[in-house]
Amino acid sequence: MKIKLLTPARWSQHLFVLLTAILLFLPATSFAEPKALVMKPFKQLSQESKECAACHKEKNPSIYAQWGRSKHYGANVGCYECHQASPDDPDAIKHEGFNIAVIVSPKDCSACHSQEVAEFSASHHAKAGQILGSLDNFLAEVVEGALTFHGKSSAAVNGCWQCHGSEVKVLENGDLDPTTWPNTGIGRINPDGSVGACTACHQRHEFSMVQARRPEACGKCHLGPDHPQKEVYEESKHGINFFAHVDKMNMDSAKWVVGEDYDAAPTCATCHMSATRELPVTHDVGNRISWTLRPAISEKIDAKDKASGKETKSWQDRRTDMKNVCQSCHTKSMIDNFYQQFDSLVELYNDKFARPGKAMMEVLQKEKLLTDTEFDEEIEWTWFYLWHHEGRRARHGAAMQAPDYVQWHGMYEVAERFYIEMVPQFMEILEKAEHDGKTDSATRARAVLDEILNRPEHAWFTGNEPENVKKARKEAQDAFKDRYLNDSK
Amino acid sequence: MKIKLLTPARWSQHLFVLLTAILLFLPATSFAEPKALVMKPFKQLSQESKECAACHKEKNPSIYAQWGRSKHYGANVGCYECHQASPDDPDAIKHEGFNIAVIVSPKDCSACHSQEVAEFSASHHAKAGQILGSLDNFLAEVVEGALTFHGKSSAAVNGCWQCHGSEVKVLENGDLDPTTWPNTGIGRINPDGSVGACTACHQRHEFSMVQARRPEACGKCHLGPDHPQKEVYEESKHGINFFAHVDKMNMDSAKWVVGEDYDAAPTCATCHMSATRELPVTHDVGNRISWTLRPAISEKIDAKDKASGKETKSWQDRRTDMKNVCQSCHTKSMIDNFYQQFDSLVELYNDKFARPGKAMMEVLQKEKLLTDTEFDEEIEWTWFYLWHHEGRRARHGAAMQAPDYVQWHGMYEVAERFYIEMVPQFMEILEKAEHDGKTDSATRARAVLDEILNRPEHAWFTGNEPENVKKARKEAQDAFKDRYLNDSK
Amino acid sequence: MKIKLLTPARWSQHLFVLLTAILLFLPATSFAEPKALVMKPFKQLSQESKECAACHKEKNPSIYAQWGRSKHYGANVGCYECHQASPDDPDAIKHEGFNIAVIVSPKDCSACHSQEVAEFSASHHAKAGQILGSLDNFLAEVVEGALTFHGKSSAAVNGCWQCHGSEVKVLENGDLDPTTWPNTGIGRINPDGSVGACTACHQRHEFSMVQARRPEACGKCHLGPDHPQKEVYEESKHGINFFAHVDKMNMDSAKWVVGEDYDAAPTCATCHMSATRELPVTHDVGNRISWTLRPAISEKIDAKDKASGKETKSWQDRRTDMKNVCQSCHTKSMIDNFYQQFDSLVELYNDKFARPGKAMMEVLQKEKLLTDTEFDEEIEWTWFYLWHHEGRRARHGAAMQAPDYVQWHGMYEVAERFYIEMVPQFMEILEKAEHDGKTDSATRARAVLDEILNRPEHAWFTGNEPENVKKARKEAQDAFKDRYLNDSK
């Protein structure tokens, strides 16, 4: 839908009020950080919204009540202000005499919340819908699913798209296509062409700041075996303090600056989005992130943009900003040391397992020892579990200090997946290749594996660990025991 | 135990009060929906309960305090009113001069809460104890366990029975058999012959409505790898709103009608049990459920009853009632579209994986390519994981809109289980059969698998996907990229 | 760092106040249970702490605010009182004219909290750092990791050590070694030689009792696939009541005696640490535990000490104390029966799976059918998953009444791991051994497996279940069905 501004007549009626309001608010508003446009164009709820409400408060009383608690209510922003449509909007419907759109898109919200939408639109979140043309789509459409739900796969509709966003379609009769809606995926592609769904995080119709700031909001998508950020947070000391002290955290305060308005604990929002004494709120969630922990091999978050010559905020600047958040509670030396620990885990994962795993998959593909089809061979699942599930868990655990995710949900499972599944499956493929006469291909692939397994960090597995390494380890253990365990042995 | 009513003398003393109370309450009480019998037979706590309390408030002070906060306290329902027994009750014990039963059964509760017990008794919950004579019993008694705990399996005692319910036995000395009690399984079979344990959901001794209405109450059993309803709820937008706004949800209100008394979020109880403006409270939790998501192949919830000619509420009527709950917050088009999405996921799972998997297991059994014993062969575990764990997770995720459960905990794992474990294990069995000379059996079984894998939805796996299908997919992806990704490529 | 007491001059100034305070508190303080030393040596915050605060309240405002809510603030215990150091402390740094240590160790805390530190030091928690010279170290340093982070493994640094504790090192420049700090592992080995980290549970700088008493505090480490105590608690009726009634639990009361100050639910602290009407608070968390559920084969918690002639509190006395906690809410017969159920599950796991599994691994090692290296062969992972992950889950589930952890996360997975993975892998090793000419070794190993599988509890798997056993089971099932299911069949 499109925000259709009020009729000129009604608009001029309220212009004076609006301008006065703007002028009154100016002194308190930083020019550098405009907030949602404060416009109070109505003395009272619009006649249109009153008509909507008269009926819907009977039909859907909870929506009405939620809205009644919202800031929108206080600002006389009612049903019609958000849901009005232009008759030529693709999803406009004629409803009780009004042109209405069911979907309120970021374009609509931007009428008042322009800065938030602009920030969001520049973020990685806004690209979440690109999955519709990606590998994961193959998983959901072909491997797990079938195009049996009006030409779409129900696995995508109920799964992927609910986080990533659907491409919302309007049926010929004006209804929203049930394969594409309801959908609150953060990268949703709306009928009006805009991208995103503010309601992914700001649940309608109260649009409560408490809700958006709590960790569960992000946990709508950021949880589970492949990106357990919510679980990681809950294990961390940050999460522990949150649950103990949430009542003291001023969660519903408009101004919510860490170190000023609250201090007991950070939520996801605190670190990734909310204001510090020096930093403004941002709706670009990657703004303070230095690594991307998503792909098989992690790289600094600006690497891709830099490589393609695209202007972007450097990872160093992003990290500086994140450290600014940390500093509310932690001293510099602790923060710096933490980042050394975190970086080292990402690099360990990258170097010991991710790059080798990727090289193994690449040589199999190059040597045509795998079919062209993804996920029809066991080693493809093995590798996917390693990086997409377990390797991410380890990295996320280190990023947010949840040791169980680094270890038992993470590196322990990565190691088992690599040594006990991936290497044997790789060798089995080579044996079959040799048996099938593809000796040269097998030899070249075996050379890749041999080079990997001969590295010092893998020597233990092949039984080639040098004696001096074993001895040094033994001595370190004995020395430790001598120092600390004499009385308990 | 049996509720023994008061002595005639004491009863008549209070008859006038009781009748007056009933009459006073009549205008506010709907005849169609009787609540717990409101009887205030005592001016004060009975002498018997006073004696119980005098001692137990010292010995078990927290029970006493919990009861002190309960509605029971306010209604002068004390220890003795619930725990009194007839001397010939199977579990009656003589205790400090009173006939007492430790277990308060639904039969006892029904003295006041007759409607709730009647509804419960007609529900699927009341049949939970039937597992004692089922396959899961074989798992717990034979595969996982052994009959070494006074003739019972500790795996059943500490596991299955704690949710499903034990068949409570009284030892010769009058004590409750430790293999069967403590037990609060919802389908518990009590010494008095009644079925159920109200305390499964209404934890003693406060019997707080807040506790029973919270999602954790249901999470006593409905969680974990095989039926993660609690986790699914927590991921859903319903759960997100619950945790953000529980303080505004009036959780301890006697009247708790969605859209009247609260609106921020539904809990499990809201959708499955509690009142709407049109529907009464029900203790038959299946009353608004249209699919059964429990078995290997989902069917509509009335299918079994219909097939056996049993009168039952149709799935359509149940769905209509559930939609009535949804309507408090959602409009009709959204609800209808949601149900299309949900249905389509169940059907996808059924058609692509569940029916084929079942057919594969059936032909192996029929052709005697499996032993008669369950769970002694790998493919039996594989199939069980597929439907009982992963397939349910996908279905539950779709039912309550938790995309991670549909996808990463669900269909992704279903697909891997099917293609990478079940199909190869099936083929290995056939190879062994051929090797053992059972050529005909193997041929017939192979025909079943071939027919399955030749279906369009499985053609990708065998490399037989038609070129036009691949091409159409490629074109759709390219078109998507052209529409949306030009600037980001 | 070392607590440096105040200068003699300032000390004498406050001696009178201190002595008066001590005398005043004497009547209310049990000599048998000294609490944290109540000393109020300052009329106001020390000059040193004032100087610290003047700067840090700007730099790290949240620390300042957290401390402002703490009891420390009320007792005039400021930054300097805890962070002061002697110039010769290994981790002392010169900071703005003061000798400061970043780490506040149990030794420092013991200046006021001597009893708590003494109890902690005698506990199993204090030994958590011994892992640094153990098998898990091999996992993190060699299998999962590599010594690439300044000679340490990032898997240990970010994983193991964050729960178990690092051996904190000071670099030559006086900084804390980033491989070893930040670290709040409970068995941390501090620069001053003391062991432990009070902040593992008492998060700085508020040191809130609410936080330490909540289950999330313990969930910093006690969660996940290998020791899901937090998840187990959350499923249990104890956890259900906690989340429903936490607001009534007086969580911030200094005196927090179950049955006096609260009664709605126990938290981890209630059962393992906090006071009952008869028992004092303890910081030795094993004090009321009767089984150790950690090792492959569970034994009574005093078994090792007894075997080595070490004086220790017997498991019976520990259980008696735990029962004293239970009694606040439960009657004796329920508690006793519960312990029978719990014990029987541990014994089932021990006898049916753990001892056999261990015997199988031992014979493989003895017969040199495994390499000397751990975790380079699949069966080593299989066995580790069985006891370290799944077997613990089952035992923990039984210990705290979470049936899903006993069954689906526990015994079900134990059984599958044993029959479908461990036994076949064992047999494969024997086949390979025979193929390699190690016939005698294979024969001896096979004898061990045969003996195990011929036991009655495994006979079902080999198809040797006696007919009378099958028949008895069938009859029991039929009898059950006759009793209860006639109308539903």
UniProtKB/TrEMBL annotation, chains A, B, C:
Residues 109-168 form the Cytochrome c-552/4 domain. Keywords: Signal. InterPro entries: Cyt_c-552/4, Multihaem_cyt_sf, Multiheme_Cytochr_ET. Coiled coil: none annotated. Gene3D superfamilies: Hydroxylamine Oxidoreductase, Chain A, domain 1, Hydroxylamine Oxidoreductase, Chain A, domain 2. Pfam families: Cytochrome_C554 (PF13435), Multi-haem_cyto (PF13447). PANTHER family: C-TYPE POLYHEME CYTOCHROME OMCC, DISSIMILATORY SULFITE REDUCTASE SIRA. This is Hydroxylamine oxidoreductase. It comes from Photobacterium ganghwense.
